[in-house]
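Look at one such:
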Amino acid sequence: MKIYKKVKVIFLVLIILLSAFLTDISTTEAVTREDLLAQIVKLQAQITELEKRLAEFQEKPRDWCYDFLADLKYQQTGEDIKALQIALKKEGIFKESTSGYFGPITFQAVKLFQEKYSNEILAPWGFKKGTGFVGYTTRMQLNQLYGCKKISISPLLPQQGDAIIIKIKANFSPQEVQGSLNFKKIDFSRIDDSLVGIIGISTKEKPGKYNLSISFPDNSRYEKTINIIERKFPITELLVTEELEEKGFSPSKIQERVREENKKLMEVLNIFTPKAYFNRPFVYPLEKIKDVGAFGNIRKSGSVSLQHLGVDLEADTGTSIYAINDGVVRLAQDFVNYGKIIAVDHGLGVFSIYLHLDKFKAFEGKTVKRGEIIGLSGNTGYSIAPHLHLGIKIKSVSVDPLRFIETIKK
C-alpha cells in the first residue's frame, strides 16, 4: 500500500506542476519564446526525475523475488546485477538507481550486506570482513531472503562420510525437479513446504570438486560446485576376546562374514522407496548418547582391515532402542557377525540399521513411528560388550549417523 500512496503523490505533484505552468502562461501578458522554452525544459527535467522515482517503485513490487544462480563480481553488468541492487535496496543499504552495473557503490553495499549476515555468509569461510564478491554463501542468503525458489544446502563444506541435505521451497512436484551430483541422480520428496533431496558421500569418495545441478520445469537451472573435503579416519585395533574366539570368531572369519552378511543386507537396502515416510526431523535412538566407537574408524589386525561404517553407542543390555524416524521395518533377523539386526526403510533410499540387539520389538513389514521402541540393546554377534551399533545408509552409501541426524534438523 505504501508504494501506491507514493505513486499517487507523484501524480498529484505532476498535476500541480502542470497547473502552475498553465497558470503562469495565462497570467503573463507577454511571454517570449525563450522564456517558454526554458520553462518547458525545467518542467521536463522535473517530470523525468519523477518518472525515474516511479520506475524504481514499480520494479520492486511487494511480491518481488529473484533466484541468484550465478556468482557476481565487480564491473559485471546485466539483469543479475540489477536484481542484486534491488535486493540491497530492500535491505536499506543501497540508495542509487538500479543501473545493472556492479560499480564501487554496489561493491561497498555487498560488503555491508555480507557483514550484516556474517554468521551465514562469512563465518563458514572464517572471514570477518565482507569481500564484495557475491559467491556461494552470499547467494544462498540472498535466495533465502528474496529467492523465488529458496534453495538451501547443508553442510556447506561436506566431508567424506557426510550426508548432503538439499531443501527447495518451490511449488513444483518432486517428479518435475531433476537433480544430480556428478551425474548421480538425486531424488526429491515433498516434506511440509519443501522439496527435500538427500545425498550420501562415501568414506571412499575422492575429495575434490563435484558439480551439483538442479533443473526446474520453468527451464531454470541451479548449478553449484560442491567441494568434498577429505576426512581423516583413525586406525584402531580389531579386537577379538577369548570369549569370542571360543565362539569361532577370528579376524579373518570376521572379515569373511562381513562380506557375506553385507551381501545379504544389500538385498534389502537396495529397495528404493521414492517417497519419504517421514515429515519430521530425525531423533536419536537412545535417551542418552555416548559415542564409544566412532564412525569411519579403520580397524586392523595383521592383514585384515575393516572400516567401521556406523557408530557404537553406549547401552546396557535391555535398553530401549527407538526408531529414529517413521518408516517400515524391512529386516529383523539374526546374523552371525551383526547379531540381531533391524533395518528400517525411511524412504528416499534412507535406511537406519540397528545391530547387536538382545530382543526384537518390531518385525518385518511393520510400519513404525518416530520414537517407537523397536528393540532392546544387547551383546549379540561380534561384540566386545553391550552397546548399540547404529548405521545410516543412503542409497547403499554409509554415512555418519550422528552427523546425519544433526544435519537433517537444519
Q: What stands out?
A: The mean pLDDT is 88. The chain is about 30% helix and 30% strand. Residues 2-27 form the longest helix (26 residues). The chain has three domains: 2-58, 79-228, 235-409.
